[in-house]
Amino acid sequence: MGIMQMTFRWYGNEFEKISLSKIKQIPGVTGVVGCLMDIPVGEVWPEKRISALVKQVHDAGLAIEVIESVNIHDDIKIGLPSRDRYIENYKQTIRNLAKYGIKVICYNFMPIFDWIKSDLNYVLPDGSKTLAFEKNKIPDDPKELLARYSKHTGGFTLPGWEPNRLAHLEYLFNIYKDVDENKLRQNLLYFLNAIMPTCEEYNIRMAIHPDDPPYSLFGLPRIIKNRNDLDWLCRSVDTPYNGITLCTGSIAEDPTNDVYAILEEFTHRGRIYFAHVRNICYLHPEIPGNKDFYEAPHLSSDGSLDMYRIVKALYDNGFKGYIRPDHGRMIWGEVGRPGYGLYDRALGIAYINGLWEALDKCEKGV
Ligand code: CS2
Ligand code: MN
What we know:
Elements: E1 3-9, H1 20-24, E2 31-34, H2 47-59, E3 63-68, H3 74-78, H4 83-99, E4 104-107, E5 119-123, E6 129-133, H5 142-152, H6 163-166, H7 169-175, H8 181-202, E7 205-208, H9 227-236, E8 242-247, H10 248-252, H11 259-268, E9 272-277, E10 279-282, E11 293-296, H12 307-316, E12 320-325, H13 343-364
Helix pairs in contact: 4-8, 11-12, 12-13
The structure holds D-mannonic acid (CS2) and manganese (II) ion.
D-mannonic acid binds next to strand 4.
């Protein structure tokens, strides 16, 4: 039997149009997953800003116990001597967040880019718009992708795609040139080992988000791609403060990943603290090796994943943590941050809640 807390990702009043009062009206949502979008990567999150954020959320009758994300400075990922300064800052951010009730920090360890999609406004037959990935539409030069994104985000900054940082793309690629997968792994372990005592003292659990997509693009190393990578992560720093944000969509973007088995195993091992639940639809699965997909509505029959099996894997293996729908489409004329509209994510929540209730009642025989 599992216990879950349903959450909704919220970027803050200044960074999006969806208000906390609307989020509060989504049935079953008890909290938001928050962040401070404007704090430059590597700087300490000031206590004042955290307390204001938490107060605002509490005043709206919602909890805030998960942050997504406190991003990791490039110097830490590259392993430059200056990383120690940024690690000290990260530890201070952990202390500051813990003071205001934060329990889980979601982060990723992908060089340069956060998620990569070829299309932010892929139009489905019903007129809704979604995110999609088609390999032949990914340009050889990542700068072209940046230019495409800047026209298609509806004026929003995508999380992890900070324009100031990405303005120096050539420089970034250059400083990462000696970082292969092994080096990146060592740098992740260095970071985790350095912050674990603080996490333990302040009871904050780190939850890494898988790479999206879970394979290399633009020659950049990727180290959180599959079951073995997650196993390596858990074994290498074997404490309950080091765990996973299991993102079903990201993991399933490599069709050779068995997303259900991964969910079962790592839930059972007690290492999934946060679940991102979304469905994807493979495009041309008949072509061997093809990994193209679009982000489908959450409903199983609308995509390639079996959402009942996904929720059941969590429930049956004793998941105790936070859950949120992941990206949603733009429907009903909504204009918003790609992947993060209100309506489709609210529908996703209603559906996940329905699956959960059915599993719970079956198990309890009521
Ligand atoms: C998120 C990621 O929008 C998304 O796909 O799941 O951007 C996620 O927030 C980061 O990778 C975590 O650091
Ligand atoms: Mn995700």
